[in-house]
Amino acid sequence: MGLTLPVPRCFSPDRLRCFGPLLVALVGPLVLPLPWSTTAAAQAFPQGSPLVRQSFVAEAVRRSGPAVVTIETERTLAAASGSSTAGPLDDPNLRRFFGMPPAAQPGPRKLRGQGSGVIFQAQGLLLTNAHVVEGSTRVTVGLRDGQRVEGQVVGLDPVTDLAVVRLARSGPWPVAPLGNSDALQVGEWAIAVGNPYGLDQTVTLGIISSLNRSASKLGLANKRLDLIQTDAAINPGNSGGPLLNADGEVIGINTLVRTGPGAGLGFAIPINRARSIANEIVATGKVIHPMIGVSLNGLPVGPGGQPQPGALVVNVLESGPAARSGVKSGDVIVAVEGRIVRTPSEVIAAVEASGVGRPLILGLLRAGRPLQLKVLPGEWGQAP
To answer: Shortest CA distance to 72 belongs to which of 256, 160, 200, 192?
Structure first.
């Protein structure tokens, strides 16, 4: 015959009061004497105990939350081309008679959007996604304290989906501390802060699910990114907001959420990469990315079940730097400047670090035979 215990209803905010009787039934009155009171809880779990101290999430958001902003954008769309001759159904009286809505007026239209951002310099510089502000004719930044300030786009980089916006008024402004994304480990806490669906200062909690997720494997072939994967909820409107660690430091810029199969997976740009891109944008107003003009894939798993090192050249841009140097589809890049590369991401990182116009020595395997070729990287986006 099994033991039946009364289970209290647990809707009280005082969880200890709720579960006290159950614990007594399980452990005995010598451990938790009845009645279970707040005083007894304080004696059993003194100040500083994990059960009574403030949530680390609340403390992290308190540290960086004031620097998280809403970004409202306005884009002007040109009028649709076509005949400007009015038809019979454009007559307002006729449309009113038939209960039809008024005809659309010719001329440019305004499209409004919204995203998030985070202030990273007290002078009023903030980071966000390029897709949040790209093509905007007006940017308005909303702060947590209710201020609304005009923003000026300093520059943006579609390749990494990052942009820098400057607040038009002088500060000082609240600043979020930046962390070190190179030190992240899978399983660490991740806190996403932003304004999904226009709901200001929304906070979600998860963990770092994975690191170095290639943007190309997520279907973003025109992006040059290795992303942080998190299960902290990221929704439309979170774009450009920060991903925080348990200390309230910014470790990433939220940029992407997976829909359809695998929905619920979010991705963020590592803050070390974002900081480097932001510094270049502030210094020059743009970002130059070297490229050699190849599409790469990882190699299939080898006989031992381990991925083979190297990057397979799937396609070569006609008249691009690699094509001019003799690189062919089917070649396997195994080294750049004498350093072994194991993945396509490592090849891209080596090219990115080289700069435009600086020769690179590629170590290749062609039909199993080693080969070295010198390639002169060009600028991403420039016609060969």
So the answer is: 200
161 among known catalytic residues: yes
Residue 295 a catalytic site member: no
Catalytic residue, candidates 161, 216, 345, 354: 161
Place of tokens 């450009």: 240
The single residue of 181, 239, 345, 354 carrying the catalytic annotation is 239
Beta-bridge partners for 266? 230, 257
Contact 183, 106 (CB under 8 A): no
Q: What is the pLDDT of residue 110?
A: 80
pLDDT band, residue 229 (cuts 50/70/90): very high
Q: Would you state the pLDDT for residue 41? A: 44
Catalytic residue among 116, 131, 181, 345: 131
For the segment 103-152, what is each residue's pLDDT rounded down to a tens digit?
Answer: 666 666 788 888 999 999 999 999 999 999 998 999 999 999 889 999 99
The pLDDT-based confidence of 184 (bands split at 50, 70, 90) is very high
Indicate left, alpha or beta for 319 from its phi (over 0: left) and psi (-120 to 50: alpha).
left
Q: Whole-number mean pLDDT of the chain?
A: 80
142-146-150-151 Cα dihedral, nearest 10 degrees: -40
Q: What is the pLDDT of residue 11?
A: 40
Confidence of residue 225 (pLDDT cuts 50, 70, 90): confident
Residue 71 has pLDDT above 70, yes or no: yes
Is 157 labeled as catalytic in the residue annotation?
no
